C-alpha cells in the first residue's frame, strides 16, 4: 500500500508538471510514472516482509548456507523445491518439517515420512513429533543445520 501511495504521488506530480506539454511528452511521462509506481511497490515488498516477520530461519550449514527465510505463520522445509525453505541436502525428506506459529510462540514439527527425524536444540524429534522454539535453537535436518531466531518487536 505504501509503495503504491508513494508511486502514485510521484505519478501525479509528473502528470501535473507536464499537463500543458504535447501529447508525446505526456505519453512518455505517463510511462515513466507507471514504472515509478511499480518500482516503489516492488522496493517496499521486502521491507514489509522484514517488518512483519515474527522470526527467521537461517541456514548455517548445507547447500543453502547463508540463506535466511522470514517466519510469519508457517514455513515448510524440505527437498521439494516448492517448500518455503528448499534444502537439497542428503538426508532431507521431500517434505521434512515445518515451523509454525502457535499461541505460545513457535514450534518445529517433523512431518510423517521424514526418516531420521530432526535434532532440535540437541534433542531428537521423531516423525510426527513437535518441539517448542523460543529462539536460538539449532535445528538439524539431514545434512543441513538451521537456526531459529525469534525476533522481538
Can you walk through the features of this model?
By secondary structure, the chain is α+β, with helices and mostly antiparallel strands. The chain has 2 domains: 2-52, no CATH class; 55-150, Tumour Suppressor Smad4, CATH 2.60.200.20. Helices cover 30% and strands 33% of the residues. It contains 2 helices and 11 strands. It has helices at residues 2-17, 23-52, and strands at 55-61, 68-71, 74-78, 85-86, 97-102, 105-110, 118-120, 123-125, 130-133, 138-141, 144-150. Strand 5 (97-102) and strand 6 (105-110) form a beta hairpin. Helix 1 (2-17) packs antiparallel against helix 2. The radius of gyration is 22 Å and the shape is elongated.
Write the layout of secondary structure elements.
Blueprint: H1 2-17, H2 23-52, E1 55-61, E2 68-71, E3 74-78, E4 85-86, E5 97-102, E6 105-110, E7 118-120, E8 123-125, E9 130-133, E10 138-141, E11 144-150
Parallel strand pairs: 3-4
Antiparallel strand pairs: 1-2, 1-11, 3-5, 5-6, 6-9, 7-8, 7-10, 10-11
Strand content: 25-35%
Distinct helical segment count: 2
Q: Quick one: how many beta strands?
A: 11
| Arithmetic mean pLDDT | 84
- Supply the CATH class of the largest domain: Mainly Beta
General form: elongated
Major sheet: arrangement of strands: 2-1-11-10-7-8
SSE succession: HHEEEEEEEEEEE
The domain tally reads: 2
Distance from N terminus to C terminus (CA atoms, Å) equals 21 Å
Helix/strand structural class = alpha+beta
Q: What would the CATH topology of the largest domain be? A: Tumour Suppressor Smad4
Query: Radius of gyration, rounded?
Result: 22 Å
Largest sheet: 6 strands, antiparallel
| Amount of helix | 25-40%
At CATH level 2, the architecture of the largest domain is: Sandwich
Detail the poorly predicted runs.
none
